[in-house]
Amino acid sequence: MAGRSIAHFLFGSLAIALGSYVYLTMQIDMSANNDYKNAASIYEFTVKDTHGNDISLDKYKGKVLLVVNIASKCGLTKNNYQKLTDLKEKYGESGLVILNFPCNQFGSQMPEADGEAMVCHLRDSKADIGEVFAKVDVNGDSAAPLYKYLKAKQTGTLGSGIKWNFTKFLVNKEGIPVNRYAPTTDPMDIAKDIEKLL
């Protein structure tokens, strides 16, 4: 009888400990997603590269950044890939870094998987567009914290939500978003704003 009581006690204690762990883990994850509200700059965010490695954005301190949600099957893809490549070639050595985040939220127009499939797609498209990160959501509860931060700092014309592929955020050398551009904005039309920040 005593053995059964001890077993029940141990099982109950284990269940409580496991439940507490799950609850605390969920709270930590939830608070991590809300950190964007208190972030002073994008340097406080860590993202995954296309191969799943953690990348702290503070590695880009002192650089001018252009953050873009990209897609491979969009009507805007060809022009944006070409013009982002042109921007990188023109301003890369002066301190511009383009951060590309594949996104499949708009018409499922980014079907390529992260990793080698993404690298091959960009190579085949002759898109030397800069740094490429893991696929993210940019809208909704599942949006990447970085994108929640960007949208809070630079709202769009009709609200903060990202409307389509190739929305662009320009970030100064202090990691502060200073401008937002519509998907239809030609990347080369951003050149004058980039030059002011370099």
Characterize the structure shown.
This is Glutathione peroxidase. By secondary structure, the protein is of the alpha/beta class. The chain folds into two domains: 2-37; 42-197, Glutaredoxin (3-Layer(aba) Sandwich), CATH 3.40.30. The protein has five helices and seven strands, in the order αβββαβαβαββα. It has helices spanning 2-34, 77-91, 116-124, 145-153, 191-197, and strands spanning 46-48, 54-56, 64-70, 96-102, 131-132, 168-171, 177-181. Strands 5-4-3-6-7 form a five-stranded mixed sheet, covered by helices on one side. Strands 1-2 form a two-stranded antiparallel ribbon. The radius of gyration is 21 Å and the shape is globular. 29% of the residues are buried.
Poorly predicted residue ranges: 17-33
The total of beta strands comes to 7
| Helix count from the secondary structure assignment | 5
Mean pLDDT: 87
**How are strands sequenced across the largest beta sheet?**
5-4-3-6-7
Largest sheet, strands/sense/barrel: 5 strands, mixed
Number of domains: 2
Helical residues, percent:
25-40%
Amount of beta strand = 15-25%
Q: What is shown here, in short?
A:
By secondary structure, this protein is α/β, with parallel strands linked by helices. The protein has helices spanning 2-34, 77-91, 116-124, 145-153, 191-197, and strands spanning 46-48, 54-56, 64-70, 96-102, 131-132, 168-171, 177-181. It comes from Drosophila kikkawai.
